[in-house]
Structures are given as structure tokens and as C-alpha cells.
Amino acid sequence: MRRLLPSPHDESLSDVYGDLVLTGAVDGRSGVSLGMVSSVDGGATVAGRTADLGGDADQSAFAALRASTDAILVGAGTVQVEDYGPATGSLERRKRRVAKGLAASPRLVIVSNRLSLSADARVFADPDHPPLLVTSEQGVAARPEVAARGEVLVCGASAVDLVVALEGLASRGLGRVLCEGGPGLNASLFGQDLVDEVFLTVAPTLIGGDAPRIISPGDGHGPRPLALVALREHRSELLLHYRVVRPPADRL
Ligand SMILES: NC(=O)c1ccc[n+]([C@@H]2O[C@H](COP(=O)([O-])OP(=O)(O)OC[C@H]3O[C@@H](n4cnc5c(N)ncnc54)[C@H](OP(=O)(O)O)[C@@H]3O)[C@@H](O)[C@H]2O)c1
User: In what order do the strands lie in the sheet with 237-244?
Assistant: First the structure.
């Protein structure tokens, strides 16, 4: 692995983002860091999955991001397609987190208006680490058997209000939130200008076809400029870390 920015030097894969501090709570809501992988032509999936996109560098970044966050935010679609399990993590990662002053495991937070998950999904497999289900009153009423498998945070009558959700997470001490997608959830966050930084792996591959981008089309505000914080390269994979640049007036 070569770190090109800031201060170029070689480093081992296990040191990637070793000193990382994710964006914390801002304006009463949790900070949101997006962690995604795409092909060079901007595709976010191969045959509907991410498995064939990320290499060793992406896996190292994925582990380091999970080792640095209070909570993992993920859409119900990604939980289903990627067959998410509990986010307990390996003993090594738990030690790494504790050394950073974090809880041993990050809280897994699933966003879903309709709670359209199976009550038997693997994500509910560890009763000691149930996911936090960010949903609506309608979702709980429609799928009580799913609601019962996790802790529920109701954030709206028929649809989740993501600002309310992020305020709720911040008030629970989950100030640093890593959003692992998918593109649908990312579109909702970006549409409300709730993304604070981006960790993007650019996989050295072209996909073509109709693969989704890392943010689905949706109603958003205009483009947001990004400032490059760090750039790493390993066997043609690029790890990019950007922070979102907001004009000073937006922060008043
Ligand atoms: N390249 C990458 O880094 C990456 C990362 C993650 C996923 N992916 C890929 O992306 C695909 C899945 O993405 P996706 O966009 O279809 O799914 P998604 O964003 O993970 O999930 C969509 C579902 O999440 C819930 N949701 C999303 N935004 C919401 C909001 N604002 N309020 C309430 N609920 C919300 C809804 O669930 P309900 O319908 O239950 O209400 C919605 O149907 C998969 O193919 C996966 O492999 C790629």
C-alpha cells in the first residue's frame, strides 16, 4: 500500500486509516460518513452485488471504517441483498475499537420505512447485539414480528425522517455514523445534505451496463464540492477520502 496524500509513504494494509477519526455530531445530529466502492466507470455493483468489486485494499478500508464508527447505518435493501449479519466483529477489531475509546462493537442501524426484512434474517442472529430498526409507525404496525427482533426507533408516521433519525442516534451517543449504503439510502441522505464525508474505493475495473451509481437518482440539492483528505493506492485500487465542503453560510 502506498499513501500518496497526505505525506507520501508506504504502509501495511493493516495500518490503513489506523488513526482515523470519523466526523462526529454536528448541529445536534450524528455526522455521516459514506463508505462505498465503485468501478472506474462509476458502477456500484457487479451482477447486483458488491462482492466482485472490492479487493484487499477495500477490505482493509471496510474493516478500518467499522473499527472507527459508533454506528453502521444501512438500508434494508442492502441488508437483504448482501445478507448482513450482526456487526459484532472479530476479537481483533473489538480490541482495536476499545483502544480507540469506542464501544467493543458498532451499533448496526437499519433504515426501513416498511420493515421489509425477514424476521429470520441473519442480521437478527445475535440476541446480544440486536440491530436498531429506524422505521415509521406504519412499518411497526405492518411488521410487528420484525420490529420485535430489534430495538425500534420510530422516526415518522408513514416515512422515516432522516434528520429525526440522526438526531435520535446522536442523543444515544452514536455521534459517528458510517453509512454503508445502498444507493437508495445514500440518495435520501444526500438529498437532504446529510453526508459529511466520503470514503470511496475505486476498483480497477470497468463494468458498463446498467449498474447503479453509489447514489441513486433522486431529488437533491445541487452538486456539493468535495475536498480530498487522503489518497492511497494498492495494486491499482484507490482509496479516496473526501470531506464535503459547505459554504460558511450553510452552517449558520
Ligand atoms: N458499491 C457499494 O459500495 C454498495 C454498498 C451498499 C450496497 N450496494 C448495492 O446496492 C444495492 C442495494 O441498494 P438499494 O439502493 O437497492 O437499497 P438500500 O438503499 O440499501 O435499501 C433500500 C431500502 O432501504 C429503505 N430505505 C432507504 N432509504 C430510506 C429512507 N430515506 N427512509 C426509509 N427507508 C429507507 C427502504 O426499505 P423499505 O422498503 O423496507 O421501506 C428501501 O426500500 C445492492 O445491489 C447492493 O449490493 C453497493
Answer: 9-10, 2-5, 226-234, 237-244, 197-203, 31-39, 176-179, 71-75, 107-111, 132-135, 151-154
